[in-house]
Amino acid sequence: MSRSTGGSSLKGKAIAYPTQPDLPELRPNDIVIAVMGITGTGKTTLISYFSEREMKIGHGLEACTATVEISRCNLPDGSKIFLVDTPGFDDTYKSDTEILREVAHWLTAAYTHDIKLTGIIYLHRIQDPRVTGTGLKNLIMFQKLCGEEGLGSVVLATTRWSAISLETAEDHESQLKAEFWKAMIDHGSRVFRQDRGRESALEIIQYLIRKKRPVTLDIQSDMVDKGLELNETAAGKEVVSEAEKQNKANEERIALIRKELQEALTRKDEESREELEELKAETEKEMRTYREELQKMKVGREELRRQMEEKYKKEKEQLLQQMQANEKLLEEEEHRRRTMEEKHKQDLELQKAKLQNKYYQLLLSDKCWVM
Prior knowledge:
Blueprint: E1 4-5, E2 8-9, E3 32-36, H1 43-48, E4 69-74, E5 80-85, H2 96-112, E6 119-125, H3 133-146, E7 154-159, H4 166-180, H5 182-186, E8 190-193, H6 198-211, H7 218-225, H8 234-267, H9 270-296, H10 301-370
Parallel strand pairs: 3-5, 3-6, 6-7, 7-8
Antiparallel strand pairs: 1-2, 4-5
Helix pairs in contact: 2-7, 2-10, 3-8, 8-9
Coiled coil: 240-358
GO molecular function: GTP binding
Protein name: G domain-containing protein
């Protein structure tokens, strides 16, 4: 069923995204598979096996994927598909709010244009037998985004099998299936091993294509069909809950700092007072940041689209300015190089002229001596 914005039908129209000028256009019948997981699980590597363009692959713990990136891919049988690289909720520089806004914007835009995901590949490092910290947060957010109905189109794929022994890896796999992934498997998710590079990646993709089970995620139906704001979705509530916990912890911290400040003033301890004032200012700044993050979550689909497009426009303008500034620096450097080369050339010619003049003077001197 086609969804409308402002009363106009969008069915059958291609969708282009403003994040990158070279993004491919998607149409309703295209095979589109999202790849998700925390940083370092091999998302970009998997996509690079089939992508028409070169992918930037990270080798550390800093995220390479800062926004949703779509890659047009070619399979061995000649078929064309699209793989969507998504940032994880453990980004080096972006908050969970920013990541969720990015992902929600792309998912709702696709759904509005009748583009459904063929499936989702969720990657997990096999050397991590337990899902804790950012890994657990990422898994929870993933489940909230999908909803129970969407889990039937999910592949849970373990990566980096060569990093540990086969026996240990199989033990870890069993633990993941029995504990952390059990509920998802019960709702139809399938476990694969991404352990043979391009070959196993192709098997995963072909499984999702054969399954022919296009998925509508909870966040898509919530924001598009039900008209909910981002903070009212299951994923949004999770982000809001974490932000509120941090705010509460900071409020308690501020109360303690104020008490210690009063004691420092009573003792006339100037050094402690200055340190506490600095700590208080940092905590208050963090609280303001969290309040701003909460405010950003109070946004519907259309307003989110408007804000994100405005954001991309500013980023594009800033990038253009940086490119122009770099071009100017290159031109200036080239001018300096040419000027130096010309001066060096002139110096060499002057030195040559001086040597020639000295040589001729010596010749004349020799002639005078003979006479």
